[in-house]
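step=encode ok
step=design start
structure_in=
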C-alpha cells in the first residue's frame, strides 16, 4: 500500500513538479492550494507526510502547521517546509510550530525525496 503525502502550495507549477517527483517514487499525492484548503484535506484519511509552502494567501504555512498540530489525528504527521524563505527567523518560527525539515527552493527533487523518506510515517 502506498503512502499519502499532502502538498500545500499556492503555485500550481510547484505542486506539479513536487507531485511528479513523489508519484515517481511511489507515493500517493493530495494537493491543497493554500493553508485553509490544505486543512480541508485533513478529513480523517491517513496522511503520512505534509509538504507545505510558507508564503501563501488566505492562510500561510506557519499558521497552517499550527492548525495541523491542533488536530489530534494529524498532530504527529511530519511536516516539511518547501519555501524560498531561508531566514533563520522563519526557520525558528517553523520549528517552534512543529516543522521537521526545511527545504529551500529552488530544490533538487532528490534532496526533497531524501527528506521525505527520512521523515515519512511508517
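sequence_out=
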Amino acid at each position: 500500500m502506498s503512502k499519502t503525502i499532502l502538498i500545500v502550495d499556492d503555485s500550481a507549477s510547484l505542486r506539479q513538479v513536487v507531485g511528479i517527483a513523489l508519484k515517481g517514487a511511489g507515493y500517493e499525492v493530495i494537493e491543497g492550494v493554500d493553508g485553509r484548503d490544505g486543512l480541508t484535506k485533513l478529513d480523517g484519511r491517513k496522511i503520512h507526510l505534509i509538504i507545505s509552502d510558507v508564503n501563501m494567501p488566505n492562510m500561510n504555512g506557519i499558521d497552517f502547521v499550527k492548525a495541523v498540530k491542533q488536530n489530534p489525528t494529524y498532530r504527529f504527521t511530519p511536516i516539511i517546509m518547501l519555501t524560498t524563505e531561508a531566514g533563520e527567523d522563519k526557520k525558528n518560527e517553523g520549528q517552534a510550530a512543529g516543522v521537521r525539515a526545511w527545504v529551500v527552493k529552488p530544490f533538487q527533487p532528490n534532496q526533497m525525496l531524501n527528506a521525505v523518506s527520512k521523515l515519512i510515517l511508517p
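step=design ok
step=annotate ok -> Residues 4-119 form a domain with the Rossmann fold fold (CATH 3.40.50.2300).
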